[in-house]
UniProtKB/TrEMBL annotation:
GO terms for biological process: carbohydrate metabolic process; fructose 6-phosphate metabolic process; protein N-linked glycosylation; UDP-N-acetylglucosamine metabolic process. Residues 284-422, 452-592 form the SIS domain. This is Glutamine--fructose-6-phosphate aminotransferase [isomerizing]. InterPro entries: GATase_2_dom, GFAT, GFAT_N, GlmS/AgaS_SIS, GlmS/FrlB_SIS, Ntn_hydrolases_N, SIS_dom, SIS_dom_sf. Coiled coil: none annotated. GO terms for molecular function: carbohydrate derivative binding; glutamine-fructose-6-phosphate transaminase (isomerizing) activity.
């Protein structure tokens, strides 16, 4: 989990190259922030790097003063070797003329390293990445030009990678390659960019090419060249215009991206609703109704979003099989050409989900992708794609990811319901009203969530309970509290709580109930009573004007809507509760420890 940014200009830019690289890294810091570094060519290769956050390292080593026309930058989340100056990227060859940055894992690095050491190469770091620089150096020594040496090096490495490399002896190109890990090209006038994701390039250009798995090539200031299996690709036909503005990828006056993105949800939901394509929905609904088995695949927040669909599909006489992406092999012997998989990933680059989808497709399973990123790996590995169109999500803790995914999946359900002959006009009106209801939810519940955070900040643990279709919302709420506030939070089916978990409940123990499923509310009240009898602090998200509020110590009222869209409204105060609790406890919710935005390694 690392971030890559490289840029090459036809002539020296108005701002120092180092400043441009530093700004690119700041856009990428959510992908990893235990170390940072840059490499530029300016009368030789200059490398500056160290452990620490981007701003700290940049100031310490004077990034902003570095000059040149070609450079690489990297922010790291460690996978091989501890976060320190030696292991920080970029890595260089023995002669100090080749610099490489990398996101992913080189699986066979140990054997390559041993081979290269026998040939006299000296390694400075514990990382897997360094072997790439030495491989290219080795093949250049054998008489190959840089691009040929780079290609030969790629033929030797196994694993997931996005790579960018510069050579001070051939400084008019940045060489790149991709396998599984995300990589894009930003196409400019008099410059080109290689980067891990779209928001990083928006300060410079909105014209983007998504590099596909197995592709490699180079950029110069005026050319983008891509090959696959030795065959040049038509890059001009693949340029896409990104509708996001650079401002959409900044905090916009909010103290943190997470809070900004919680408040952006009405706009994101409106964009999702407006972008739903009837033909695509009908294709998915028809496949859903015709499938033998329906697998709903996702990781983390996306898995929880998928569960909101899984809990209501039985009403269509469909028995779904929810699959945590990393556990896809459990059902491997069942996958069949008559099956359907709905694979969900905000980035479309989550490696566990990509691997699950590839395994399913090998056995003929039809795949529907639900993703936010056009041109992502998941979108290309799928038969049908439903884009959530939520805009960039910079906060590590997913917020609008969940709500826009739930809305998209609810639209699939409605389309299937209509295909079975049901009248869904009222539900369609509710769908269009969801963005405004989300806005009202934020306005009505922010104050209560902030006050509750003050009460939770000294607690060590909490339960999140729900029944039926409310359970995925409880799971998502608990995940958010764990991710950003570092409080132990467990979600359970409310009826299961008395089978063991209730033993932990004592005076003041926080128990958060979710009343988003109208079919299970009365039964959930019995669990409220059980917790109150043990002295728990009972909190609940409840529909406005319901009687549930009277039974709770603290009720967070949200606008009423059907159970299809209720998860969207009920999760919003839980997102805010997690955010404000993190702030109360003195943590930065945009940089939760040990986490990165997109999980691109196993």
């Amino acid at each position: 989990m690392c971030g890559i940014f490289g840029i090459i200009f036809a002539e020296r830019p108005r701002r120092p190259l180092g400043e441009i690289l530093r700004r690119g890294l700041e856009r990428l810091e959510y992908r990893g922030y235990d170390s940072a570094g840059v490499a530029v060519v300016d009368r030789g290769l200059v490398v500056k790097k160290d452990a620490g956050k981007v701003a700290e390292v940049a100031q310490r080593y004077g990034f902003d003063s570095l000059q040149g026309v070609v450079g690489l930058a990297h922010t790291r989340w460690a996978t091989h070797g501890k976060p320190d100056q030696v292991n920080a990227h970029p890595h260089v060859d023995c002669r100090g003329v080749i610099a490489v940055v990398h996101n992913g894992i080189i699986e066979n690095y140990a054997e390559l390293k041993e081979e290269l050491m026998k040939r006299g190469h000296v390694f400075r770091s514990e990382t897997d990445t360094e072997v790439i620089a030495h491989l290219v150096e080795e093949y250049k020594k054998q008489g190959l030009d840089t691009f040929s040496a780079f290609k030969k090096a790629l033929s030797r490495v196994r694993g997931a990678y996005a790579i960018a490399l510069i050579d001070a002896e051939n400084p008019r190109a940045i060489y790149f390659a991709r396998n599984l890990s995300p990589l894009i090209i930003g196409v400019g006038e008099g410059f080109n960019i290689v980067a891990s994701d779209i928001p990083t390039v928006l300060d410079h250009t909105k014209r983007v090419i998504a590099v596909r798995d197995g592709e490699y090539g180079y950029i110069t200031a005026g050319e983008v060249y891509i090959e696959a299996d030795g065959v040049p690709q038509d890059v001009a036909a693949r340029i896409e215009e990104i509708p996001w503005s650079a401002e959409m990828a900044t905090k916009g006056g909010y103290p943190h991206f997470m809070l900004k993105e919680i408040y952006e949800q009405p706009e994101s939901l409106a964009s999702t609703a407006a972008g739903l394509e009837p033909a695509q929905l009908e294709a998915v609904a028809n496949a859903l109704l015709a499938a033998r088995n329906v697998y709903i695949v996702g990781a983390g927040t996306s898995y929880h979003a998928g569960l909101t669909l899984a809990f209501i599909l039985p009403r269509l006489r469909i028995t779904p099989i929810p699959v945590i992406s990393s556990e896809y092999a459990i059902y491997e012997d069942l996958y069949d050409k008559d099956d359907l998989a709905i694979a969900i990933s905000q980035s479309g680059e989550t490696i566990d989900t990509i691997k699950a989808v590839k395994a399913m497709r090998e056995r003929g399973v039809k795949v529907v992708a639900v993703t936010n990123v056009v041109g992502s790996t998941l979108s290309r590995e799928s038969d049908v794609v439903l884009y959530t169109r939520a805009g960039p999500e910079m906060g590590v803790a997913a917020t609008k990811t969940f709500t826009t995914q739930v809305l998209t999946l609810a639209a699939v359900y409605l389309t299937a319901l209509r295909a079975l002959g049901h009248d869904v006009a009222e539900h369609q009106r509710e769908l269009k009203a969801v963005p405004d209801l989300a806005r009202k939810t934020i306005e009505k519940t922010a104050g209560t969530a902030k006050e509750l955070a003050r009460r939770l900040r000294q607690r060590l643990s909490a339960y999140y309970l729900g029944r039926g279709a409310a359970l995925p919302v409880a799971m998502e709420g608990a995940l958010k509290l764990k991710e950003v506030a570092y409080l132990h939070a467990e979600a359970y089916p409310a009826g299961e709580s008395k089978h063991g978990p209730i033993a932990l409940v004592e005076e003041g123990f926080p128990v958060i109930f979710v009343f988003s499923d109208p079919n299970t509310g009365e039964k959930t009240l019995s669990n409220v009573a059980e917790m109150k009898a043990r002295g728990a602090l009972t909190i609940g998200t409840v529909p406005a004007r319901s009687d549930y509020a009277k039974k709770l110590d603290v009720a967070i009222e949200v606008p009423q809507t059907s159970e299809l869209f209720a998860p969207i409204l009920h999760v919003i105060p839980l997102q805010m509760l997690a955010y404000f609790t993190a702030v109360e406890r003195g943590y930065d919710p945009d940089k939760p420890r040990n986490l990165a935005k997109t999980v691109t390694v196993e």
